[in-house]
Amino acid sequence: MIINKDNIRFGATDLLLVAAAALYAFGIKLWFPVCETGETVMACHWAGRALFAASLLFAGTALLHLFVPDGKMKAGMDIPLAGLSVLIMLIPGRVIAVCGMPGMACRSGTQPWSIGFGAALFVLSLADLFFYLSREFAGRHARKG
What we know:
Elements: H1 12-30, H2 43-67, H3 71-90, H4 105-140
Helix pairs in contact: 1-2, 1-4, 2-3, 3-4
């Protein structure tokens, strides 16, 4: 068995990653969705779909990260989480265009929500990475004897 329930230990950053990822995934669908589709499908529709897919991937990885017992593996999982958070920041407006008018939902809601939450997820990922790396280096350089 890969995951031993007796060895599962997680900290505040692990829980914050899962909570923030779930909040972002729900937020992109419920509170800050992209513009509604009418007769034509606008580019922001595809940005919304890509953001939701990236948020689900982030949330799934963060949830798996919660149950991994090894600190080195957790640190290794934080690197793609940081990359995914940068992707979340870049999708609306950089990777996939959003509407040009400032009053549109994608421009006034989805884009700032994604940039702000992507930055928060990036900081959380790096904080978790440094936490596990510092524990690993502290254990390796401890005095023996």
